[in-house]
Amino acid sequence: MYITCLDLEGVLVPEIWIAFAEASGIPELKKTTRDEPDYDKLMKWRLGVLKEHGLGLKEIQETIAKIDPLPGAKKFLDELRSFTQVIIISDTFSQFATPLMEKLGWPTIFCNSLEVADNGEITGFKMRCEQSKLTTVKALQSIGYETIASGDSYNDLAMIKASKAGFLFKSTDKIKNDNPELEAFETYDELMAAIKKAMI
Q1: Which residues are the active-site residues?
Q2: In order of start, what are the domains of the chain with their CATH numbers?
Q3: What is the pLDDT of residues 1-24, one digit of tens each?
Q4: Closest CA to 198 of 161, 156, 147, 141
Q5: pTM higher than 0.85, yes or no?
């Protein structure tokens, strides 16, 4: 039995923080897990920037409401789910992901949650578990599943490398060059073909 584990942002939908950086006119918020491998450090820094500018959950959700999945993402996901189980494993937050899951046809997602004050200020975040992507893949393997994984960022590498087959998708040149043993793809057709091949 196979389960395919996919990252969300950069793979199926645009990067939420980049979209919000553009909408809010705060360019420093464009920094993502492609740039900063330490997610805890990245999120604490982001919350500091939000506080400094007096921005909260409502403003981010207004931007997310305008985000559509990447072209071809829903079709890719629908086809993939027709022959294998799929779980999206993301370091995003349920408060961000829900409107995007609706646009993708409600796939299963494992993600984290934000701590939000009554006034809408994001005061913190709660990670589902340590090293959530790797931990989830290992847990699935422990109950009898083979995993196939794909993602684009530093925080995807552990789950990609721990899986029976793992692929970079729409990643950066630096990540690709630093991990030459990983196959890297730019189109959903290529990724679909690689996943099908891995399952034979």
Answers
A1: 7, 9
A2: 2-13+70-118+125-198 (3.40.50.1000), 17-64 (3.90.1470.10)
A3: 999 999 999 999 999 999 999 999
A4: 147
A5: yes
